[in-house]
Specification:
The complex is a heterodimer of chains A (264) and B (375).
Chain A (H helix, E strand, L loop, with lengths): L8 H6 L1 H4 L9 E6 L6 H12 L8 E7 L4 H10 L4 H6 L3 E5 L12 H23 L4 E6 L2 H7 L4 H18 L2 E7 L11 H8 L2 E6 L11 E7 L13 E8 L4 E4 L6
Parallel strand pairs in A: 1-5, 1-6, 2-3, 2-4, 4-5
Antiparallel strand pairs in A: 6-7, 7-8, 8-9
Helix pairs in contact in A: 6-8, 8-9
Chain B lengths: L1 H10 L9 E6 L6 H17 L5 E8 L4 H10 L7 H4 E5 L11 H12 L5 E3 L6 H16 L5 E6 L2 H7 L2 H13 L3 E9 L5 H10 L2 E6 L15 H9 E9 L5 E11 L2 E6 L2 H7 L14 H9 L22 H18 L31
Parallel strand pairs in B: 1-6, 1-7, 2-3, 2-5, 3-4, 5-6
Antiparallel strand pairs in B: 7-8, 8-9, 9-10
Helix pairs in contact in B: 1-2, 6-8, 8-9
Classes of the chains: A alpha/beta (264), B alpha/beta (375).
Chain lengths: 264, 375
């Protein structure tokens, strides 16, 4: 039934169905928040696919992927099933992949060296973005696949991680990049006054939250997504709802999105 | 009320007094602080441009949004930016707060960006040093005023961001130095109160003379996070909220006012709190299923009922003992009443004469009339 309309509920909620490609997300920060029970990785895969999809305007889009949780071969396999060849994109210089799996900032917690570690990573990202801009790719998406693992790599200095994200945010406002980051909500549940997650939510324009069903687990529904836009979504025509909520089922080659109770 | 905030900032401070200072506080469940900040900024800018305000210029310390964002915002709000360098200077702490971008090509870019509005944007690359920041702000202000004697306003787009880089004492001293700076006319800043402990928010409440806080219209029932069941509530909270302002006067009087705020595509709107909102919030009586109050009609009906033990309506004067009559009067009354009664009534029949104590007591009151007797 979706043949005529390739956009699913997730695309609609993110506004991807209007202009095509990742144009509506230009200059935006999308934060995906998941938990142990419900992984939000599939949303990240979907957005990676969308940001590289050939039907978005004149091939001017590119992706900078900063991987902390999975190697390139993993994403290559997953995205191939979704119909997107990452290896080819890498050869076409539309994808810059930073493998940060073994990355560790030098120095102990709170030392200045941690900052230099992340600052040098940022400079690499910035150079990559600048060279992509020089190739006239002006619709660039930056993806960070796991903020909490980045914090581990930074020896637990969440402040430096936030500074790194702030610097990535400057790229979104100066060059119109899109920043997509995945983070785990339940890692931060504590009473010690840690505000890292809240600060990230303040930074984000769009929050995608993947949660288990409130009514308990089900066979054919894997969880629910809540997408909330901060501020009025900038669209033409009728104003849209700022909060979207629907259920999903992750399948081998795709994911299905449907409103509660309308699962076929 | 939002207008009165802007008016206070416009009018500035008196000679030898602190500049009026406004804290705008929000939280993630009602994230409209930036919208209010932008509104105040746009209002103050138009006052400055029209020459209506005490301050001659504005120094904006941008930490969370880029200078171009603010220039766009002012432009879209209808503020003329042709002579922007004469009245607004932006201290750009956003583009490179920690000096990570040491690439020379970047500097060229930053300079070309400022070429459009020469002199309006100054890059600041060491946010951790609050003293240096203060010097930069006051220098920019002096530059703005030039040789003219006058004052300028300061806007800080997020104190929360400053607190991430510098200690509470240095940030508080930065702000209080600006407040007591004799060239600062007014100052306002944004604070995300849920990012900090209550005591830190209180510190900034003390430094400011006006506190505008944004609270969600509907509080989530299960603590901080809203479950997806009440996402419609969350949808409400993303564009609407309660806006309450505390004004602290010079003499120590504190006035609190409340309004409803809604952010729409067309802009920001403030409306007085609706009547049902008051009904929920106001009234000393607890909410019960039955009606404790009488309507006006019910009260009239009740007053017109003649109770069987009051000999009203049969032509005789109504006798009410109000406790203030002289002893002599009472004596004549007591003498008078029995005689009248004995004349009118059949002597074989007994009669009860009820004398109400006063009009204060309702005739059908449940109160025991003899409860003051010491038996």
């Amino acid at each position: 039934m979706d043949l005529h309309r390739p956009w699913n509920l997730l695309d609609q909620a993110l506004g991807l169905d209007e202009h095509g490609g990742s144009q509506p997300l230009r200059g935006k920060v999308v934060l995906i928040e998941d938990c142990v029970k419900t992984s939000g990785g599939f949303v990240l895969h979907h957005l990676v696919k969308r940001s590289l999809s050939p039907d978005s305007p004149p091939l001017s889009n590119a992706l900078v992927f900063i991987a902390f949780s999975q190697p390139f071969s993993h994403y290559d396999r997953v995205l191939r099933k979704l119909g997107c060849n990452l290896a080819a994109q890498k050869e076409n210089k539309r994808l810059v992949f930073f493998d940060m799996l073994m990355f560790q900032c030098p120095g102990e917690n709170g030392e200045k060296v941690v900052e230099t570690g992340l600052a040098s990573l940022y400079r690499k990202v910035q150079d990559a973005v600048n060279s992509l801009v020089a190739e006239e790719r002006n619709c660039i998406t930056i993806v960070v696949d796991d903020i909490s693992l980045m914090e581990v790599a930074a020896n637990g200095c969440s402040d430096e991680v936030l500074s790194f994200l702030h610097y990535c945010h400057t790229l979104t406002s100066e060059l119109g990049c899109t920043l997509i980051a995945l983070n785990h909500g339940d890692v931060y549940f504590s009473h010690d006054g840690s505000t890292t997650l809240l600060r990230m939510e303040y930074l984000a324009n769009i929050l995608v939250r993947a949660e288990p069903l409130a009514t308990g687990s089900a066979v054919d529904v894997h969880g629910q997504l809540t997408i909330s836009w901060k501020g009025i979504p900038e669209r033409q025509g009728i104003s849209r709802s700022q909060v979207h909520n629907f259920h999903f089922r992750v399948k081998e080659n795709s994911a299905e999105y449907f409103y509660p109770g309308t699962c076929s | 009320m939002a207008d009165s905030i802007c008016r206070t900032l416009r009018d500035g401070g008196l000679e030898g007094e602190h500049a009026p200072a406004l804290t705008i506080k929000d939280r993630i469940s009602s994230p409209l602080g930036l919208d209010v900040f932008n509104h105040v900024l746009a209002q103050l800018s138009s006052f400055i441009l029209a020459g209506k305000s005490q301050s001659r210029g504005l120094v904006l310390v941008a930490l969370t949004r880029s200078p171009s964002f603010y220039l766009e915002l002012l432009k879209s709000g209808g503020v003329q930016l042709n002579s922007a360098q004469k009245w607004i200077h932006i201290l750009d702490c956003y583009s490179d707060p920690l000096g990570w971008k040491d690439n020379p090509s970047r500097h060229e870019k930053a300079n070309t960006a400022t070429d459009e509005n020469p002199g309006t944007v100054a890059l600041f690359r060491d946010v951790k040093d609050a003293n240096k920041l203060f010097c930069s702000v006051s220098e920019l202000g002096k530059e703005l005023l030039g040789p003219i004697k006058g004052r300028f306003s300061v806007a800080i787009d997020s104190v929360s961001e400053m607190l991430r880089h510098a200690s509470l004492t240095s940030v508080a001293s930065f702000i209080s130095k600006l407040r007591s700076h004799d060239q600062v006319s007014s100052i306002f800043w944004l604070l995300h109160s849920d990012l900090h402990e209550a005591k830190i928010a209180a510190v900034f409440d003390y430094i400011s003379s006006m506190i505008a806080s944004l609270e969600p219209m509907i509080h989530p029932s299960n603590g901080e996070r809203l479950s997806s069941e009440n996402r419609s509530l969350r949808n409400e909270n993303l564009s609407r909220g309660n806006f309450s302002v505390r004004f602290k006067r010079r003499n120590g009087r504190v006035r609190q006012m409340c309004e409803e705020i809604s952010v729409e595509q067309s802009g920001i709107k403030f409306t007085p709190v609706s009547s049902d909102g008051q009904a929920i919030g106001g009234g000393p009586l607890p909410k019960v299923q039955f009606n404790l109050e009488l309507s006006e009609k019910e009260q009239m009906d009740r007053a017109s009922v003649v109770l069987p033990f009051e000999h009203q309506g049969n032509g005789k004067p109504i006798q009410i003992y109000d406790g203030r009559r002289s002893l002599a009067d009472t004596r004549t009354n007591t003498v008078h009443v029995p005689t009248e009664a004995s004349e009118a009534a059949d002597p074989r029949k007994g009669e009860i004469i009820y004398l109400r104590d006063s009009d204060d007591e309702r005739p059908d009151s449940d109160e025991d009339p003899d409860d003051d007797l010491d038996i």
